[in-house]
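Loading example: each entry is read as two labelled lines plus one structure line.
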Amino acid sequence: MDTSTNTLPLKERLLALFEENQEAIKGPSTPLVNRMRKNALSMFRKLGFPTTGLESWRFTDLTPLLKTEFEFDFSNQSRSMDIEKIFTCDVYDLDTFSVTLYNGWFVYQNAALTRLSNGTIIGSLAKAMEVYPDLVDQYIGKAAKPEQAGLTALNTAFMQDGLFIYVPEGIKVEKPIQLINIVDSEHPVFLQPRHLIVAGKNAGVTIVQCDHSLTHNISFTNSVVELFAEDNADVEHYMIQNKGRNSALITSSYFQQKKDSRLTTHAITLNGGFTRNIMDASIKESNCHSEHNGLYLVDSNQHVDNHLFIDHEAPGSYSDQLFKGILDDEARAVFSGKVLVRREAQKTIAHQNNKNILLTDEAKANTQPHLEIYADDVKCSHGATVGQLDPQAMFYMRSRGISERSARQLMMYAFAMEVVQKISIEALRDRMDHLVEKRLKGELSICDQCMLHCNSKEPTTFNIDLSKI
Amino acid sequence: MLSIKNLQVSINGKLILKDLDLEVKEGEVHAIMGPNGSGKSTLASVVAGRDTFDIDKGEILYRDQNLMDMNPETRAREGIFMGFQYPVEIPGVSIANFMRTAINEKRKHLGLEPLSGAEFLKLMEEKKKLVDIQSKLTNRSVNEGFSGGEKKKNEIFQMALLEPRLAILDETDSGLDIDALKVVANGVNKLRRKDNATIVITHYQRLLDYIIPDYVHVLYEGRIVKSGGKELALELESKGYDWVKKEAGAQIQG
C-alpha cells in the first residue's frame, strides 16, 4: 500500500504511482498493451480528469470526488474464493454463466479462464493476456478512444484485470453471461476494471453486468468496456446498477459494430451516488441495429448521467435511444445523446428520446438530444421532456376511486415499464419489474441484493417520496 | 340521492353555474340538455370532484352527505361515477390493472376483502359481455390509441365494473356512430336498477331514443331554465334551443 504520494492532487499522484508501480501494473500484459499504456499515460497527462469546462461534462463536476484520498493496490489479487460466501445474486431463475469481479479483480472458483466446449472463452482479462495474447491484441484498444477522454486514457494506462469474453464465429451462447462487480472495502478505493467482449461473425451473446457495492465507504470505479460485434453478430448488453450513495461509478462503453450486427444495450440505474454511463457506438458497416435503452430512478443527492454517442459511419443502419428517469429530492440527471450521421450513411434511421419526471422543485434534469446529419436521405427524430405527472390522468384515476398515492405509483410504474419491457430475458425482466415497483414504493435498499453484509449493517433505504409530486 | 341547492360555481371569477337546483331520486334517469357552453360539463365535473372550479355558494348533498367534504376518490368509492366526455389516455397502465386497483380501493373503503386475481378476471369477463366489449381491449393501456367509440365503450365498461349508485354521463354520445351509440345506451339500460340513478348529459336528443329519461332539464347560461318529461327532449329536437333561449331571456329580464 503506497502512502508517500497521498498529499499530491490525484492526477499527479496517479502519474507518480504509475512510475513507481510499473512492474506490478504491467504484470502479464502483452507488449502491445504495455505500449498502449505508455501512450495512454501521456494522453492522461495532457487531458487530466474531465472538468466542467468540457462540453460533455458541463453538468457533471468530479472535483469534490477527486479530493478523496483514495487507496491503490496494484498487486494482482485475482484469486480463487467462494464468492457466494459474500454475495448471492437474488434474481431467481436467472440461469447464467456467472463471474465476479471483487474490487476490480477477477474471482474464480476453478479456473481464471474457462473455455467452453463450443470454443467460447470467458474469464479474467489478465489471464487472457497470458493465455491468448494474440486474440487480446487483435481487439484491445481498437474501440476505446483514450485520445478523447482522460478517464479512458487513465484506465488504459492502469488496466490490469476485468472480464474477457470471446465468442467464436457462428456460436450462440445460450445462457447470459453475468458479470457481478462488487466493491467492498473499508477504505476509499479507486478501481479501474477493463472489459473486452468479442462476438465473432454470426455469434450471439448476452452479457449482464451488475454493479453492487457492499460498503458504505467512498469508492470510485473508472471502468472501460470494449465490445465488438462482428458481421451479423447479435449482442445484448445489460448494466444493472444498484450502488451505495458514496460510490462513484463511471462506465465508458465503446461498441463497434460490423455489417448486419445487432446490438441492444440497457442501462438501469436503481441507486448510486454518482453514476455516469458513457456509451459510444461506432457503426462501422451497413445494415446494423443499434438500440440503447436506459432507466434511472434517483433520489437524495444522487447524480446520474447518461452520455451517448452513436456514430453512423455506414449506410442503412438503425439506431434508437430511449432513456427515462424519475427524480426525487435534489437528484440530478443529465442526458446527452448525440447521433452523428456521416455523409456515407444514407438511409439511416435514428431515433432518440429522453423523458424525465421530476418529483420536486429541487430535482433537476438536463437533457441534450443532439443530431448531426451530413447525409441527405435519412429519417431521424429526437425528443426530450422534463415534466410532472399528467394532472388530467390523475383526476381520471381518482374519479374511479383510486387514491392519489396509488395513481402516482401506477403512472410512475407505467412510465418506467416502457424501458423494463425491453428486457428480453424473462427472469431478469420480472425481477426488474419487481425492483422498480419496490423502488417506487420506497422499499428498495441497496442491501436487498447482498445477503451477508447488509444483514449485519444498518440497511440504507432510499425512498422516492410519492407525497411530493 | 342527489340534491343540489342554490349552486353557484365560477372559474377565475367567471360565473359558470348560477343558483342551480337539481333533485335526483333512486331509480330515476335525468337528462340534462342545453346548448354548448351552458355549463353541462361543469356540473358533471363539480359532482365528480374536479377542483379547478370555485364553489361560491350552495350545497350538494349525496345520500345525505355533504359532497364538498369528500375528495374525488371518496366520492367514487361512495358510488359516484362520471363518464368523461374526453376520457384520458394513460400510457402503460392496462385497463385490467387500473380497474382492479379501483375496485379493490373501493372494496377497502367499504370494509370488504380485495378481489383476488381470479375473482377479478371472472368479474371482468362478466361485465365485458354485459357491455359488449372486445376482450382484447382490456389488455391495452387505458384509452391509449382508442377510437372515439372504444373510449366511450370503455367508460361504460368501467361503470359496469364499479356499479355506481349515481352515474353522470357527460356527452357520452358525442362522436359516436349509431352502432356505438346503441352499445353505449344498451350498457346503460342494462345497468339500470331500482336503487341507482343516472344523469345523462347530452347536446342531442338522439341518445334519448335509446336511454329513456324520466326527466329532462334544459341548462342555459348556468341555470336550469326548463324541466319536463321525456317529451321535452322531442320538443327541443323540433324547435331547437333558440326557443328556450328566448323564453329564458324573457324570464331573466322579466
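Chain B touches chain A at residues 48-50, 71-73, 75-77, 81-82, 84, 87-93, 97-99, 101-103, 105-106, 109, 141, 158, 162 (CB under 8 Å).
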